[in-house]
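Lab notebook, bench 4. Still working through the backlog of constructs that have no structural model yet. Next entry is a single chain of 298 residues. Request: give me the structure tokens for it.
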Amino acid sequence: MEIDQCYKLLGLTSSATLEDVNKAYKVLALQWHPDRIPRENVQQQLQAQEKLKEINHARDSLRRLAEQKVSNSQAKHTHHASHQTTNQSNRQYHQHQTRYQSKYQSAQSTYQSQQQTSERSSESYRPHQSQYQSQTYQPYQSYQSAQSRQQTSKQANPQPEPHSKTYESTQASQKPQKPDLTGADFRGANLREKYLEGRNLSYANLSNADLTDAFLHRVNFQGANLQGANLFRANLFQANLQNADLRGANLIGADLSGADLSGADLSGAKVGFGEKVMVKLTNVNFKGATMPNGSVHS
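Model written out:
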């Protein structure tokens, strides 16, 4: 069925909208619906069914046509907007290109002018350059001869090398020395895993400091305040802890092999669990030290 016939069947013109198509269809579908015709009238039933098929086909065709018109209108509008945007971009590009070419030509002209000035300066410099070279060549040649004589004299009379021991002692004196931390205040400081081997911390205040896993080989803690310090797993090999205050310190897991704890106060220090000592105490000097249980080691 052609579009003209579809319009004619629904009683519409080609200017009809989608809303007009839907309204006309409802009226005709209600009029020709087979339910409105008695079932015993077979001939009219068949005629109504055929008419309803034509009405449905006309409605579907006109709906597709209306939707296509809307789609084409939108596409046309989008194309027009895109074309305007493209034209605007092209105008901006040409304007930018014109400004760039103008700047380039101006810069090129300036460069050529500078080149010409430079060439004229070079031509006027050459006579002066020749005159200068002729005036300075002879003194320079004399200077080279004097340098050559001086080098020959040094080769003939070499200077004695510095004594190796003197050189080594000079090098040793130039090495940076570890700072003296006598009496330093490290109360509550976080010194976990610090490398302090050989440092002098005598009479320093390290109360409640965290020295967990610290490397403290041969550190001088003489008279230091380590009260309540956490020395868990600290390595105190051969450390000097004479007269140190270790009251309430945590020594569990610490290595005190070869350390000097003479006169140290270990009252209430944690050294293990129950009767199990968990501190390494090989060759430790406890002479006169106050032990964790309050007794004095003889």
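Notes after review: Helices lie at 3-9, 18-31, 42-156, 164-174. Residues 42-156 form the longest helix (115 residues). Flag for follow-up if needed.
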